[in-house]
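ok posting inputs for the uridine-diphosphate-N-acetylglucosamine job
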Amino acid sequence: MLIVAGARPNFMKVAPLLTAFQSRKAHGEDLETLLVHTGQHYDARMSDSFFRDLGLPEPDLYLDAGSGSHAEQTARVMVAFEKACVECSPDLVVVVGDVNSTMACAISAKKLGIRVAHVEAGLRSRDMTMPEEINRLCTDVVSDFLFTTEPSANRNLAAEGVPPEKIFFAGNTMIDTLNKHLERALDLPLPDGIEPGDFAILTLHRPSNVDAVESLNRVFSALNAIAERIRIVFPAHPRTAGKLKAIQIHQNIRVIEPLGYLAFVGLMARSRMVLTDSGGIQEETTVLGIPCLTMRLNTERPITCEIGTNVLIGTDPETIRQTALSILDSPPARRAIPEKWDGHAGERIADTLIAQLRASDCMG
Ligand code: UD1
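and the output
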């Protein structure tokens, strides 16, 4: 089987799958797993450091897809992954998340008649201006095994007509990784001058927020006002870093390089509040009990708002400012952790896939 990772948010999702399959193999299960890195993210800061932090093995195959327009990047991954599939003839391809590599590899595999498993299936923002929403829809429609993280995903897939026997509510492999590494992350020192509980974190990389200077300026007019009250640490994604020169940034906002996994989790877990437009951070803050303000108009992860610590605040500067200040004045109580976000999702997925493959071998 081939397990695919392409971009930063994929690495922590595949790690528990590899561990679970390795342990099944050590217990006598007859299976071979190869890790494929598409090269969508290639910077040391966006890729290599994650392999080190998570103890991931060197990829068995590196496709070197790199950056480009969506079509260029997707096409390069599709062509390279098709070759890899022809050479390796896997009986299963496992893709995770919603990045361009996820969709590209799912489509290439399916067109060769190879079964596809999608981990983190069924999430929907209903926002077709988000490239990830298109990736999620296309990936799910060609997938044979759809592993979900929250009840909304099961409902979405059912409403789209996916047969129930293809859907498996497995939990969240990203949270497996968080639980496993949290203690190590908390042992790391904070950046100079940063005290636990006395800073906020900012992450920002969605094209809708950062690609146009006007949008970035709007968001920063709120962030600069919040920075009057609390220091903000901002590890900037390369996409965003390139745009910051044109923006006025308060001196209390410390812009730093993208962090490795452990350093980022260690920082997040000791912060007072997180401001973000990311997907996965909404889930990690829910588990850590840290208030999260998501600067987007929608979320594909509604459970984080329903029972977690996430608040969807949109992109209106005054709303962002007021909500952040009210959270600083009266921090909300810690809320619940979603069902099956218990550190064992990777094991459940591995066991399900092994059973499914065995059943189809027996029949076929
Ligand atoms: C991708 C994912 C997004 C995810 C994000 C996390 C898609 C559609 N988007 O967005 O869902 O939240 O990763 O980081 O797949 N760049 C570098 N070094 C790298 C990679 C990228 O400098 O290692 C720069 C390049 O200028 C590139 C730009 O960042 O053009 C955007 O990279 P890309 O992979 O296209 O999308 P992300 O914004 O990273």
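notes: The two ends are 18 Å apart (CA to CA). Residues 8-26 form the longest helix (19 residues).
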